[in-house]
């Protein structure tokens, strides 16, 4: 195995530790009602009724009302350890619900390691994080309107060739192709079915464009937040495809 593989492993470890620390920092500033909602939305339950070992005495006890902040934090940490949820899921939830400021989770590698393509910085990750942090669209009327705003943003930010409706296999088209390498599929879903269909699209497009990212506008009028978070996690876990979620309201 080459040094590139070792470099990626080091950066993955560094990034995991970074997100652990940032999430710990974020939840320390939350109140019980916020932590309760996070646990219900992400895990589907609160700590009530669970058996926990007291960190001080070592004795086991059953959690009952009133549930403390420490017990909510324990449930989140225990769920991560058991791989019931991921750090990315909590990060995206905190970001999308504006429980942390913009750029709170921006990660900058300290190792300056090489990546799979031999570059000293993962350019695709940098582009994704720039869009996640800086792209603030006006209320879109539809997907085409959202795409147009994203293309305009890319032109000013990246100074690279941009192609809309780039040819893909099976006579299909990917929404945006940046620098002939980085593909973006933009969706403004109206229901869970659209998110499921997007997964099939991404899987097909990935064969031709390995560096692909889903950009989903979460129309807060539709109450799709949980479904969008669920499917973005599936795209990541099953396909290795990242998702940028932009929350707001659709125009009209």
Describe this protein's structure.
The radius of gyration is 20 Å and the shape is elongated. It has eight helices and seven strands. By secondary structure, it is α/β, with parallel strands linked by helices. The protein has helices at 3-27, 32-43, 69-81, 87-96, 123-134, 143-158, 192-208, 225-239, and strands spanning 51-53, 60-62, 162-168, 172-178, 182-187, 212-219, 243-248. Helix 1 (3-27) crosses helix 4. The protein folds into two domains: 3-96, no CATH class; 123-248, Rossmann fold, CATH 3.40.50. Helices cover 48% and strands 16% of the residues. A five-stranded mixed β-sheet has the order 3-4-5-6-7, sandwiched between helices. A two-stranded antiparallel ribbon has the order 1-2.
Distance between the termini: 54 Å
CATH architecture of the largest domain: 3-Layer(aba) Sandwich
CATH class of the largest domain: Alpha Beta
**Strand proportion:** 15-25%
Can you summarize the main beta sheet? 5 strands, mixed
Radius of gyration (CA) equals 20 Å
The order of strands across the largest sheet is: 3-4-5-6-7
List the helices and strands and how they pair.
Layout (H helix, E strand, L loop, with lengths): L2 H25 L4 H12 L7 E3 L6 E3 L6 H13 L5 H10 L26 H12 L8 H16 L3 E7 L3 E7 L3 E6 L4 H17 L3 E8 L5 H15 L3 E6 L4
Parallel strand pairs: 5-6, 6-7
Antiparallel strand pairs: 1-2, 3-4, 4-5
Supply the key terms.
252 residues; alpha/beta; Rossmann fold; 2 domains; five-stranded mixed sheet; two-stranded antiparallel ribbon; 8 helices; 7 strands; 48% helix
């Amino acid at each position: 195995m080459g040094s590139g593989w070792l470099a990626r492993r080091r950066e993955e470890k560094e990034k995991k530790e970074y997100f652990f620390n940032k999430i710990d920092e974020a939840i320390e500033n939350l109140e019980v009602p916020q932590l309760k909602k996070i646990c219900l939305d992400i895990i589907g339950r609160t700590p009530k009724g669970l058996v926990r070992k007291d960190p001080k005495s070592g004795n086991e006890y059953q959690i009952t009302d009133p549930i403390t902040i420490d017990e909510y934090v324990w449930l989140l940490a225990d769920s991560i350890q058991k791989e019931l949820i991921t750090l990315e899921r909590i990060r995206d939830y905190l970001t999308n619900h504006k429980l942390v400021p913009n750029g709170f989770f921006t990660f900058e590698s300290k190792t300056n390691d090489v990546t799979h393509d031999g570059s000293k910085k993962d350019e695709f990750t940098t582009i994704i994080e720039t869009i996640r942090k800086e792209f603030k669209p006006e209320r879109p009327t539809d997907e085409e309107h959202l795409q147009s705003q994203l293309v305009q943003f890319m032109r000013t930010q990246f100074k690279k060739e941009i192609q809309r409706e780039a040819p893909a296999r099976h006579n299909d088209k990917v929404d945006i192709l940046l620098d002939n390498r980085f593909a973006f599929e933009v969706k403004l879903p109206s229901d869970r079915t659209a998110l499921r269909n997007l997964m099939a699209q991404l899987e097909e497009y990935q064969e031709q464009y390995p560096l692909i990212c889903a950009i989903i506008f979460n129309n807060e009028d539709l109450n799709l937040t949980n479904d969008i978070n669920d499917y973005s996690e599936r795209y990541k876990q099953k396909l290795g495809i990242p998702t940028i979620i932009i929350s707001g309201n659709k125009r009209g």
